[in-house]
Every structure is written in C-alpha cells, then in structure tokens.
Specification:
The structure is a single chain. The protein is of the alpha/beta class. The protein has one domain: Rossmann fold, CATH 3.40.50.1220. The strands form two sheets. Strands 3-2-1-7-8-9 form a six-stranded parallel β-sheet, sandwiched between helices. A three-stranded antiparallel β-sheet has the order 5-4-6, covered by helices on one side. Helix 5 packs parallel to helix 9 and helix 7 packs parallel to helix 8. Strand 7, helix 8 and strand 8 form a beta-alpha-beta unit.
Length: 227
C-alpha cells in the first residue's frame, strides 16, 4: 500500500501548501522546509512545525486509516504500508502493530531528531514544547521530516522498493502520483505483474498506467473495495 495526503484529508489535515495560510502565506515552501531555511532561522522553522504538530494531535484517524489497520490485522506479515504523510495517523489507528510493516517515507511530525547523534525522540505534549527542542543528550533537535533537497531514508525506501516489487496486489490511495521516488513504487509493482488499484477522487498521472482506478475518497473507496 502507498498512501498520500488524500487519506488524511478526511481527518482535517491540510496538505503542506494548504497549511500555508495567514502569517505563513507569505513564505515559500522552501522557506519553511529546507536545510538552508533551518540553518538561517531555526526558531521560525520550529514555530511553523510546532503549529502543525498541534493541529495533527488535535486530529483523529478516519475510516480510511482504520480500514487499513483492520486489513493488516487480517493479512499479518504479508501487509506492507508506505506513507508519504507525516501526521502519524496510520500508527495511531493501529497500523504497524498487527504483524505488518508501516514505513513513513517522509518522516513524522510527532518526533524530532538530535542534530548531532541523529537519534529520534518523541516530542513532548504541545503545552510543554519549547522550541527549538533539546534532546535528552542536551543537543538541539530538528523536525524529523524529509525536507526539500534531502533524500528519503535509505532503509525505508529500500523496504518499500522490495515490498512493491514482490507484491501481488498494491493499493495507491490519496496520492497525486507526481512525487518521486514514492510514485514510482506503483510502476515497479506493475512491471512485476501486480494488480495495482488506485483510490482517488481525481484522475492522476498514474491513472492511465494502473490496473484499476476508483474515483472515490479514501475511506469510501476502501470500504467499497474491501466489501
């Protein structure tokens, strides 16, 4: 499985660019999510991510997240879910806890990374979050997010390549199909003979290339497919 922003839209989570409203509308994405921006003004970058962190924690997993967790409980070790989302809602719905694998390709808003050691630590509750946060090692931490100009985590990406290349059936849910290398996973599965099913209310660049497409939102499409 591969999921994108569409599966979290039903939980009220805006896309990265949709979240750039109010004070943040005057910034380019690269001003908020790139290594140069962080080096230039870590306090501003953390202010942006602290706001998104609060919004994500206030949201709840929706039917799409829950149905994928139920599917994992049924499939067990044969289930693999790669997500482009950083909101942690798949894990909160139970994905990755029923014998399958959950891989967050772009990181997670609920954690931060020690700048010196690379260790990842959960963030405190929003009311106790001081920015920039400091790790238990005493070092400043950066958001645990893959920024513009950075590579996806090698282990996560390799696991996704292996899973999709060996899949019999792959679902592509709520993703535009334009962000690579994640979007290429669907094509890898197709090349190896898998049945690849897209669930998206809109046609995407992947639509003509895949086996089937359901023009539905994530939750409704998954419910119809699994029924």
């Amino acid at each position: 499985m591969l999921t994108g922003a569409g599966i979290s839209a039903e939980s009220g989570i805006p896309t990265f660019r949709d979240a750039q409203t109010g004070h943040w509308a005057r910034f380019r994405p690269e001003d908020l999510a790139s290594p140069p921006a962080y080096q230039r003004d870590p306090e501003m970058v953390w202010e942006w991510y602290a706001g998104r962190y609060r919004d994500v924690l206030a949201a709840q997993p929706n039917e799409g997240h829950r149905l994928l967790a139920e599917l994992e409980a049924h499939k067990g070790a044969g289930f693999f879910l790669a997500t482009q989302n950083v909101d942690g809602l798949h894990a909160r719905a139970g994905s990755g806890t029923h014998g399958g694998t959950l891989v967050e390709l772009h990181g997670n808003l609920l954690s931060a990374r020690d700048e010196k050691t690379g260790e990842i630590f959960p963030l405190p509750a929003p009311e106790g979050l001081q920015t920039p946060p400091v790790s238990p090692n005493g070092n400043r931490m950066r958001p645990n997010i893959v920024w513009f100009g950075e590579y996806l985590p090698e282990a996560a990406l390799n696991a996704a390549h292996q899973a999709f290349a060996g899949a019999e059936v792959a679902l592509i849910i709520g993703t535009s199909g334009v962000v690579y290398p994640a979007a290429g996973l669907a094509l890898e599965a197709m090349a190896e003979g898998a049945t690849v099913i897209e669930i998206n209310p809109d046609e995407t660049e992947l639509t003509p290339l895949l086996t089937f497409s359901l023009r539905e939102k994530a939750g409704q499409g998954l419910r119809l497919l699994l029924e």
